């Protein structure tokens, strides 16, 4: 363990998984680990279980005992986070000395662009983050959760595929390879779709998104229509954030880069690669918080 402690914890939790990193300002990240989904708005109890599991596994990978975590400063960014509602819950459930709670958006933007760098980010995975930053503050569009928003996300694409499959089953639309494949996943039984929907989380719907993406690349008309609808939404979202063609734009997440072929070509003239992950961003933010804490 470095003499330049205290220990720092960074957490990035989303609808598909929870990622954690352990380190210090001097040594950087010493260990990383991941566990199950961590959307605190959808499933707070399981989120806390998965969060602790990921942090403790990261500590183990760094060769640190769990007891060392008690003196740590933690930055915890989670999908579905409502700070007013959830910060007290995190403080009560976790043993860390200091907890900085936020949603998953700032860490994503900082990880993609770097601390203090201006640009636009479209991070599309199970959910969505569409953001702009001037290097100091952040502005967002959407991110109101699966039931109210998350247009174009993995969960939205998966639900759309199921909806189209049922419409094809009912004879309202002609089948395609995508809708036939989705029907086969449910043994061609529409009642199985309904049973699935009664307990499904966003991550469960997002599991069908790879089928949509693969089908769109193969020219499937239903898949292409879903992707184009999502892209149309993102064009509007970027416009609302004052994006102009040529501005720096980062597409990331499991779904984000696949929208490149559906966005207007001039929107990609300033496209940049992500500098790092949301977990890297969370670690940068916890380092910043720790540095500010010790300033006179």
Low-confidence stretches: none
Q: Can you summarize the main beta sheet?
A: 5 strands, mixed
The count of β-strands is: 10
Portion of residues in beta strands equals 15-25%
Q: What oligomeric state do the depicted chains represent?
A: single chain
**CA(first)-CA(last) distance:** 26 Å
Spatial shape = globular
> What structural category do the secondary elements indicate?
alpha/beta
Mean pLDDT, nearest integer? 94
Write down the Rg. Answer: 20 Å
| Number of alpha- plus pi-helical segments | 10
Strand order of the largest sheet: 3-2-1-4-5
- Roughly how much helix do the residues carry, as a percent range? 40-55%
Tags for this model:
single chain, alpha/beta, five-stranded mixed sheet, 10 helices, 10 strands, 42% helix
Your description of this structure?
By secondary structure, this protein is α/β, with parallel strands linked by helices. The two termini are 26 Å apart. The radius of gyration is 20 Å and the shape is globular. β6 and β7 (128-133) form a beta hairpin. The protein contains 10 helices and 10 strands. The strands form 2 sheets. It has a 5-stranded mixed beta sheet, with helices on both faces. A 5-stranded mixed beta sheet has the order 8-7-6-9-10, sandwiched between helices. α4 (154-169) crosses α5 and α4 (154-169) packs across α8 (209-217). It has helices at 44-61, 83-93, 105-113, 154-169, 177-185, 190-199, 202-206, 209-217, 221-240, 278-294, and strands at 8-13, 18-24, 28-35, 73-78, 98-103, 119-124, 128-133, 138-141, 249-252, 271-272.
């Amino acid at each position: 363990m470095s003499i330049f402690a205290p220990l720092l914890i960074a957490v990035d939790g989303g609808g598909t998984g929870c990622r954690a990193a352990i380190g210090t300002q001097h040594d950087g990240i010493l260990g990383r680990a991941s566990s199950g989904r961590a959307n605190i708005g959808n499933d707070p109890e399981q989120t806390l279980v998965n969060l602790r599991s990921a942090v403790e596994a990261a500590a183990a990978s760094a060769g640190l005992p769990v007891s060392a975590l008690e003196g740590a400063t933690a930055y915890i960014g989670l999908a579905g986070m409502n700070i007013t509602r959830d910060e007290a819950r995190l403080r009560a459930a976790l043993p860390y000395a200091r907890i900085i709670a936020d949603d998953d958006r700032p860490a994503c933007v900082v990880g993609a662009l770097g601390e203090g760098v201006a640009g636009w980010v479209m991070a599309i995975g199970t959910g969505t983050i569409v953001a702009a930053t001037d290097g100091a503050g952040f502005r967002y569009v959407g991110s109101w959760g699966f039931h109210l928003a998350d247009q174009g996300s993995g969960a939205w694409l998966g639900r759309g595929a199921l909806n189209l499959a049922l419409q094809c089953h009912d004879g309202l639309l002609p089948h395609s390879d995508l809708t036939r494949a989705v029907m086969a996943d449910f043994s061609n039984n529409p009642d199985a779709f309904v049973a699935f929907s009664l307990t499904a989380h966003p991550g469960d719907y997002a599991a069908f998104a790879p089928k949509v993406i693969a089908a769109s690349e193969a020219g499937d008309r239903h898949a292409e229509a879903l992707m184009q609808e999502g892209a149309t939404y993102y064009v509007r979202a970027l416009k609302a954030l004052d994006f102009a063609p040529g501005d720096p734009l980062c597409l990331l997440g499991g779904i984000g880069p696949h929208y490149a072929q559906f966005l207007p070509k001039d929107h990609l003239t300033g496209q940049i690669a992500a500098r790092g992950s949301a977990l890297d961003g969370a670690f940068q933010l916890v380092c910043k918080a720790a540095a500010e804490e010790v300033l006179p």
